[in-house]
């Protein structure tokens, strides 16, 4: 069984290194469908798995001064209270197994489908936001982005939504967060966007993961074995990503996540 967890960690780490996303989106379904963990236990274990695998990324981006800390702060103003409230909700309904399993599966399915759509539409969104034309959509986007109060409130609300979704499903901190930031802060370079998203995802997943650990829904033995596989997997995936077309990776991952999401809902 330990070998199975190590291989799963290797696979998910490889995908993360290859695409930059997909950690929670793939690991939680694998733990549920592949190893028979309860949804609550799978989510809790994956949250700490995600936090520990992303810490190195924050250190690297911090060293290169690409993290926009004021944006991280606005996101955290929403996500941290949301996470704490969601953990309290989970604690209240922790022993209502059937109802809680249904709710978590539903949120998992929705989060996976939204992640698949976010990956598919990210390229289109980039082109639309940066389009040099006067179409109605572009004009509305430009008008909203010129209002700093709108940007600040929207960032806090984005953090709130991410806090709830991530705590309930362990999914969304990467793909959903990056698409929201892309809309709200189109002048950021892509490395700044990724750095800011990761810098927010780490404390979010740590707080949510520790909350799940307090609830008893983290399996530390499984977590250790997943990390044994994921660390070399991330390295291998990042090396191979240079030789594989981004579009092919994007289509494959989006399709896979969409199918898994539909399975959770049905």
TrEMBL record:
The keyword Iron-sulfur does not apply. Keywords: Cell membrane, Membrane, Transmembrane, Transmembrane helix. It is a multi-pass membrane protein. Its main location: membrane. It is found in: Cell membrane; Membrane. The chain crosses the membrane at residues 6-33, 69-90, 102-129, 150-183, 189-210, 222-242, 248-265. GO terms for cellular component: plasma membrane. It comes from the Bacteria. Pfam families: TauE (PF01925). Belongs to the 4-toluene sulfonate uptake permease (TSUP) (TC 2.A.102) family. This is Probable membrane transporter protein. It comes from Candidatus Nitrosacidococcus tergens. The lineage of its organism: Bacteria, Pseudomonadati, Pseudomonadota, Gammaproteobacteria, Chromatiales.
